[in-house]
Amino acid sequence: MALKGPYPTLMLSFVLLGAWLALASGQREFQDSPFLRPGPQPTTNDRFLKRHWDFPKTASGNNTDYCSLQTRCRKINGQNNTFIHSSIKTINDICARARNGPVTSRLRFNITVCRFNSTTNSYKGMSLTRRIRVICRNRLPVRYVRFVRNQL
C-alpha cells in the first residue's frame, strides 16, 4: 500500500538532502560528512555550496514549491536565495584563475532564483540560464553575489 498525503514527498526530501550533504562534502559515507559530524567547522566554500548548490536540480512540482522545499531543508527559509545547478568542479572553476574578490563566470549556469515575499510568507521561483558573480577566496567561491543579465 502506497503512502498518501505529504509524507512521501517529505521522506524523499530528507533522503535527497542527506545525499546532497554527502556529495557536497566529497564523501561517500554520510557519517563522514562535515555537516553531520562534530569537529572542525565547515569551510566558507562548504557553506557556499550548502546554501547555493543543487545538482542535479531536485525534482518538484514547480519553481515555487522547489524554493520552499530547498530553503526549508537548508534552514534558510524567509530569505532570498539562488541555487546553482551545476557540478561542484564547474562552480569552483569560476575562481580557478582568480585572485581574491569578485569574479564573473565565463560560462552560463542553470540557476533557480528564489524571491521571498514577507507579506504572503511565500516564495516565487524563476529558472534562468545566466552568468553568475561570486566572491572568491583562495581560488574557491565563498559568496554568491548575483546573476549577470544577458547583454544585448
From TrEMBL:
Localization annotation: Secreted
GO MF annotation list: nucleic acid binding; RNA nuclease activity
InterPro entries (alphabetical): RNaseA (IPR001427), RNaseA-like_dom_sf (IPR036816), RNaseA_domain (IPR023412)
Gene Ontology biological-process annotations: defense response to Gram-positive bacterium
Span of domain Ribonuclease A-domain: 41-148
Signal peptide residues on this chain, from the entry's feature table: 1-26
Broad class of where this protein is predominantly found: secreted
Transmembrane segments: none
Keywords linked to the UniProt accession: Disulfide bond, Secreted, Signal
SUPFAM superfamilies, per the entry: RNase A-like
UniProt-listed SMART domains: RNAse_Pc
Highest taxon in the source lineage: Eukaryota
GO cellular component: extracellular region
Family: Belongs to the pancreatic ribonuclease family.
Name recorded for this polypeptide: Ribonuclease A-domain domain-containing protein
